[in-house]
Design brief:
single chain, 362 residues, alpha/beta, Rossmann fold, seven-stranded mixed beta sheet, six-stranded parallel beta sheet, 17 strands, 17% strand, elongated
């Protein structure tokens, strides 16, 4: 069975789907691996790193796509490459079903198997395949590092002969995987950390990391069966707004991570709340690509409003592409290992398996 990946558009995506370490694992499973020349050079993975373990290289990406059984990518292939796919080929990646529904329906009609890994169920057996968690972990860490770099003051408390510098106060909005990593990172660097989330189950996790959980009076647990946040009621939003408005008066840095699957990011830091923020404070909005958690977030820009700097990037993982690629490649390999029948050397699309059934575009 032939498994392949082609280069992403590096202006927007520097990560890889197959590292040399993972290429060897595919070959050990009995697969042939095909890549284009200089596939991983930009991340320090030379062609010889792949060739020495048996990877096949080609100058022509069109041939690679047309002749492979399985293609693994970060996202959807471009229109030209999609046109080359044929009956019974398999495409695996983060395919963004809500945005690409028409394209994916068209591929399905051509009997092309499309697996979108952001749809993995949150079950124990799927944890090693969970691309959302592995990538969000890195994003939460990097957001804190980036925000601290822009913030023009020291982070930990420092006692000197000339006086004491107080510790920076950080607010993390959204305590999912990215938020929890942001809390842990900020605490390690000496900040005082507060956090808020619509899911009451997050309170214990936040406090275990040394953060203070901001509880909205009379709040309900707004969590789906899959463990994701769901949209809050208007009453909850009003109470959360009041609590945040007061809290913001003492906050130096805000890390926004709040997302609702399949919807625009909720606007949590409203325009009128900016008057409560300190001059010189910094907001890093990880939800920027889905509209942002603040009223002024713009993708790939640093916006300054009332002396507050707001950072929003389309893909923060482009700043950690080697670490992100290593984790993503492992996630995908674990998914394919579950899908692959090694004895018969073919894919076993068993819809009784919850992992396969949830991720297959039907």
């Amino acid at each position: 069975m032939k498994l392949a990946s082609i280069s992403e558009n590096k202006t927007v995506e520097k990560r890889l789907s197959i590292t040399p370490e993972i290429a060897k694992k595919y070959i050990d499973l009995g697969m042939e691996v095909f890549l284009p020349s200089e596939y991983g050079v930009h991340l320090g993975f030379n062609d010889k790193d792949y060739k020495t373990i048996g990877v096949n290289f080609s100058e022509n990406e069109r041939d690679i796509v047309a002749n492979s059984d399985i293609i693994v990518q970060l996202g959807l292939l471009n229109e030209e490459m999609l046109s080359l796919l044929k009956d019974n080929q398999t495409l695996i990646g983060s395919l963004n079903i809500s945005k690409n529904k028409v394209i994916l329906d068209n591929l399905k009609s051509k009997n092309i198997n499309c697996f979108s890994l952001e749809m993995l169920p949150r079950i124990t057996r799927a944890q090693s395949m969970d691309i959302l968690s592995s990538q969000a972990n890195l994003a939460g860490y990097k957001a804190v590092v980036e925000a601290f770099q822009i913030y023009e003051r020291a982070i930990p408390m420092m006692m000197t002969a000339a006086g004491t510098i107080p510790a920076a106060k950080v607010l993390v909005v959204g305590a999912g995987v990215a938020g929890l990593q942001a809390i842990a990172t900020a605490k390690r660097m000496g900040a005082i950390v507060f956090a808020t989330d619509v899911r009451m189950a997050s309170k214990e996790q936040v406090e275990s990391l040394g953060g203070k959980f901001l509880t909205v009076e009379g709040s309900e647990n707004l969590e789906t069966e899959g463990g994701y946040a769901k949209e809050a009621s208007e009453d909850f939003k009003k109470k959360q707004e009041e609590l945040l408005s007061e809290t913001l008066k003492k906050i130096d840095i805000i890390i926004c991570t709040a997302l609702i699957p399949g919807k625009d990011a909720p606007k949590i830091i409203k325009e009128e709340m900016f008057k409560n923020l300190k001059q010189g404070s910094v907001i890093y909005d990880l939800a920027a690509i889905q509209g942002g958690n603040t009223a002024f977030t713009e993708v790939n820009k640093i916006v300054e409003k009332n002396g507050v700097k707001i950072l929003g990037e389309a893909n923060i993982l482009n700043k950690l592409p080697v670490s992100a690629s290593n984790l993503y490649a492992k996630n995908v390999f674990n998914f394919i290992s579950n899908l692959y029948d090694k004895e018969n050397k073919k894919l076993n699309i068993n819809l009784d398996d919850e992992i396969i059934e949830k991720t297959l575009i039907k």
